Amino acid sequence: QLVESGGGSVQTGGSLRLSCVGSGRSLSTFTMAWFHQATGKEREFVGKVSKGGTMTYLVDSLKGRFAISRDNAKNTIYLQMDSLKVEDTAVYFCAADGGSVLFPQEPTSVRQFDYWGQGTQVTVSS
Fold first, then answer.
1. Spatial distance between the Cα atoms of 97 and 31, rounded to a whole number of angstroms
2. To pair with 69 at 20 to 30 A between CA atoms, which of 3, 11, 27, 76?
3. Model pLDDT for residues 28-68, shown as the tens digit of each residue
């Protein structure tokens, strides 16, 4: 089970740190990712972190503002979001991919992920 937290309402330029905690099994065997889904839109890939946490990938549009990390000792994944914009408003989901061996520097399809959290709402207002 994956449980996200840390969402909320902030003004433009603000920051939030999302957390995703796993229960029932260790997340260290999974490549973990964050997705977001705005109202009326499809779920979109945000970024991912390798099983050991040594490699990360973020979509180009978010580089410099977002950062993804993990703490396997705490069984937790993080998404640090800075300089938030109105267009970042969405539900943010974490997801676990247990099947990938490689870590290509490119977005991963939603179909690759085995487990999903319930999502946490992020609202950015001007």
1. 5
2. 11
3. 999 999 999 999 999 999 999 999 999 999 999 999 999 99
